[in-house]
Amino acid sequence: MDVLMTLVGFVLHVDKYLEAFVTHYGAWVYALLFLIIFVETGVVVFPFLPGDSLLFVVGALCGVGTMNYPVSVLLLIAAAVLGNQSNYTIGRHFGPRVFQWEDSRYFNKRAFQQAHAFYEKYGGITIVLARFMPFLRTFAPFVAGVAEMTRSRFTLFDVTGGTLWVGGVITAGYFFGSIPWVKDNLEKIIWAMILVPGLLVLFGAWKSRRKAVGAQA
């Protein structure tokens, strides 16, 4: 429970944690951020890390001169792309056996199945769209590997999605993160960045399930 509360505190107050880290450790913050983005996108059992809010706060810190904007964007695009490549490779290795896995502390079968259904419906563009959806962005490259999408095609969507996601969210934070209203309501904005995409995913899964049930009736 203590670990969970610490994680929630980090997600909701990531701006304060990052500022403190920069104050104490300086440029090591780039290594920490690279690791977080790589792990969130590259290890299928860590879909809960705060990717969107983290990138937005990084952009805000770049906007006030605490961090370097070009270095942050390029480094974290690399982390996102390499993370997806790692996840894809894991999916290619395990293949169809994944569908037999059960829920556990380290594997969310429902989230995996939602990502698989989304992938089956929208194909390769899922790799791009899923970048902006918590949980799905962790499972989408894994599912692409399971489905044996070719490495070259996957890489095209991987680089495109990673660039749009990292570049777009950091840039949004850069221009809007220092606005007083945004700073005063950052916790609410972070909640919105977590909940709104999640609700959209759940709504899409619900619609797909209703359609499937209607087709069977």
From TrEMBL:
Keywords: Cell membrane, Membrane, Transmembrane, Transmembrane helix
Protein family membership: Belongs to the DedA family.
Source species taxonomy: Bacteria, Pseudomonadati, Pseudomonadota, Betaproteobacteria, Burkholderiales
GO CC annotations on file: plasma membrane
Organism of this sequence: Ramlibacter ginsenosidimutans
Subcellular location: Cell membrane
Alphabetized InterPro entries for the sequence: DedA-like, VTT_dom
Domain VTT: 49-174
Residues annotated as transmembrane: 27-49, 56-82, 122-144, 156-177, 189-206
Membrane topology summary: Multi-pass membrane protein
Protein name per UniProt: VTT domain-containing protein
